[in-house]
Design a protein that fits this description.
This protein is an alpha/beta fold and about 200 residues long. It has helices at about 15-25, 35-40, 50-60, 65-75, 85-90, 185-200, and strands at about 5-10, 30-35, 45, 80, 90, 105-110, 120-125, 135-140, 145-150, 155-160, 160-165, 170-175. The chain contains six helices and twelve strands. The radius of gyration is 15 Å and the shape is globular.
C-alpha cells in the first residue's frame, strides 16, 4: 500500500489541533504549516475554521499567501472548513476591508450567512462522495455559498443553501466535521490527496 500522504493544516489561527487529529485518524501524516518551506513539503493542505480576515492577514505576514495561491493553482489538494471555505472562494459577497482570498473554487461566498455565534446549530447532511449515514454538520458563524460556476460541483445543501463544494482538487464545507469524531469527510480529502500524489508521480 502506498505511504500515507503528508497533509498540512494551516496553523495561523483556528481549530488546528482538531484537524490534525481527524487527518491522522483518516490515515494521513498530519503536520502544522506556518512557513513557506513547510508548505512546500506537504501533499495537501487544510485551511481550518477561525476568522477568515485574520487568517488572510496572518498569511500575508508569514509570507504564505502568495506561495499558497501558487500551489493551489498548480493543483495542490486543499480543503477549507468554514473560514477556510471563504479563503477558497474566488469571490466574497461581503468582504471586510483588506480581506484577501486564496481562491481555487469558482464560487461566491457570503460570510456569517447562518448567523452569529449564538445562532450556531447542528444538522444532518447528505454529502455526495461520503457513503453511509448522513454527515453530522456543526455550523458556527458559518458561511454559505451564494452561487457556483460551471466548474464547481455542489456536494451538499442545507435549507436550500449550498454548504459543500468541490472543484478539482479543492474541497470546501461550511461546517466543521473535525469537531464531530466522524472522519469521513477528512477521509474523502485524504483519498483526493492520495490520487493527486499518485498522478503526479507517473
Amino acid at each position: 500500500m502506498p505511504a500515507s500522504p503528508v497533509i498540512g493544516v494551516l496553523a495561523l489561527q483556528g481549530d488546528v489541533r482538531e484537524h490534525l487529529v481527524a487527518l491522522a485518524a483518516a490515515d494521513a501524516v498530519a503536520r502544522p504549516v506556518r512557513r513557506p518551506e513547510e508548505l512546500a513539503e506537504v501533499d495537501g493542505l487544510v485551511l481550518p475554521g477561525g476568522e477568515s480576515t485574520t487568517i488572510s492577514k496572518l498569511a500575508v505576514l508569514f509570507g504564505l499567501l502568495d506561495p499558497l495561491r501558487a500551489r493551489v493553482r498548480e493543483g495542490l489538494p486543499v480543503y477549507g472548513t468554514c473560514a477556510g471555505m471563504i479563503l477558497l472562494a474566488d469571490k466574497i459577497l461581503d468582504p471586510r476591508s483588506g480581506q484577501e482570498t486564496v481562491g481555487g473554487i469558482d464560487m461566491i461566498v457570503r460570510r456569517n450567512a447562518f448567523g452569529r455565534q449564538n445562532e450556531s446549530f447542528e444538522a444532518a447532511l447528505d454529502v455526495r462522495g461520503v457513503a453511509g449515514d448522513p454527515v453530522h454538520g456543526v455550523f458556527i458563524r458559518a458561511p454559505w455559498v451564494e452561487s457556483v460556476g460551471a466548474r464547481a460541483e455542489v456536494l451538499a445543501e442545507h435549507d436550500g443553501h449550498i454548504v459543500a463544494v468541490r472543484q478539482g482538487n479543492a474541497l470546501a464545507t461550511s461546517f466543521h466535521p473535525e469537531l464531530t469524531g466522524d472522519h469521513r469527510v477528512h477521509a474523502l480529502f485524504v483519498e483526493m490527496t492520495r490520487a493527486w500524489r499518485g498522478a503526479e508521480s507517473l
